[in-house]
Amino acid sequence: MLARSFYIVLFLLCSAASFSQVKFEAKVSKSKLGLNERLRVDFEMNQSGDNFESPNFTDFTVVGGPNLSESTSYFNGQRSYAKTYTYFLSPTAKGRFKIGAASIEIGGKTYKTEPVIITVTDAVAPPKNSAAAAAQTIADENIHLVAEVSNPNPYLNEAITVIYKLYVAPSTGVRNWVEKENPRFNDFWSQNLEIKAYKEERGKYKGEDYRFVVLKKAVLYPQKTGKLKLDPFVLDLVVEVPKNGYDIFGNRLMTRVPQTIRAGNRTINVKPLPEEGKPADFSGAVGEFDFVVTTNKTALNASESLEAKVQVSGKGNLKLFELPKLTVPSSLEVYEPEHAENVRTNLGGMQGRISDTYTIVPQYKGKYPIPSISFSYFDLKTESYKTLNSEELLVDVITGPSNTENTATSTAIAQPNTPNAPFAFIKISTNFKPTESKPFFKSTTFWASLLMPLLAIPIAILVRRKKDERDADIVGNKRRKADRLARKYLSTAKKALGDKVPFYLALEKALHNYLKAKLKLETSDMSKPKIRELLASRQVDEVNIDSFSKLLESCELARYAPSTTVEMQRDYDVAATTISQIDKQIR
Predict the structure, then answer these.
(1) pTM of the entire structure?
(2) What class, spelled out in words, does domain 474-585 have in CATH?
(3) What is the spatial distance between Cα 233 and Cα 267, in angstroms, rounded to a whole number?
(4) Which pLDDT tens digit goes with each residue over 348-371?
(5) Transmembrane residues, as ranges (predicted)?
């Protein structure tokens, strides 16, 4: 009797232990699938936990999830609980791949799932007359991604807009879209317009009623003539297709069909600007513009400064052409202009103004004219060239030294025109005076020569002390060395500023040569992941690593996309700063 009771108690304890055991496992819908199929992965647990971390789904694209579900049930007085995180995956290539372990914290302990091996084969055809095939057919017919182009036949540098719309039939639903491929807009200057919220609208697709949402908007300026192609925009999403049935609340049951859709290639036929009537000073401006040259002062004293602003305002490709240069008399000292842009971009293209502001410093008194300059552009409304001229300005320098050289020259040129005295400008008398000579001994020069070496001794000691302090300044010396190194590697790129292809080739070569020198890298080893890994191992911070990587990408892309001198100057400045910062941090 005692033995029987012992076995009953032991059985109950084992049963309780089995019920309290934590289970956390990964389940997949199939271990072998075609390249065009979707995979469902469930991470299930029998107790609630926190801090769930999914694996890195390398070689797959997440097209749905994570979806969380929880359930509790009772059977024969026993409670069972299940919590599941669900993902829908799309394979990106054929082969044998591993889905890593997921983790979660339950009762203060961390649990992990076992990795799962998935085999991906060639695309497979769905079974005919199956429910899955029928749902796939409905999904294909009821959802469309369309690229709407405002003008398929623009002029060179004329703005066009591309709007990508997702059309969905009224009886169909869509969720969890992921951008799989984004158009790169090669041969166009492009700017994506921000979409703050996705708003459902009503519209027609091929004459039928549809709902649609705008997913992407971009403004493009073609930089080449001829037939230019727009890359496709590709989405992975889940389409909800109605089934023949309803739930207990009367709602239609839906089948979820993973789908990949694309807005097909579009061709833009870009017309060249006419050669007839093209002004000699035309620099590529296309649109509708105003042009003005102004100064902030009309009267000032010598050695004071004034600002002259050359400004173009209006609507058109404002960031894609250069402003005309200001010309002034040689007696006025002119500094390099400061470029400014106040441009906004919307569906109509660029609007606003750009300007170059020159600082001018007169040296002598007098009246100085700033000649009129011209600005030419192609007017899209009239399809003809227009030229605008600025007003001639006069700068009055009230006080200051006289420019005797210019006065004598102007007098010499004016006097031969006097009929009665054709050679009167030639001087035949002089006003030379004898000079007095003083003895060198005990003169000011004598005493200065005697005392100068004595004064030079404390000066030399002071200079030496400053040099020692400078040599001891390790941080400062490293900073100065880094700045010199940046200038050294970027000198060739600086000479090519304004010429896009040579500039970016030189900039890319400078970045590579810098890495060769600092990291002992060969050209064949210069992959972006390798560069990031080595810079991180040499204690360079993430901000500078990202900046360096973006510069390399910019060099690769900019050779095939339009770039202005302002953009090249910006990339040059970023490169100089980044090399300098990396050289200070690298160990």
Answers:
(1) 0.53
(2) mainly alpha
(3) 14
(4) 999 999 999 999 999 888 999 999
(5) 446-463
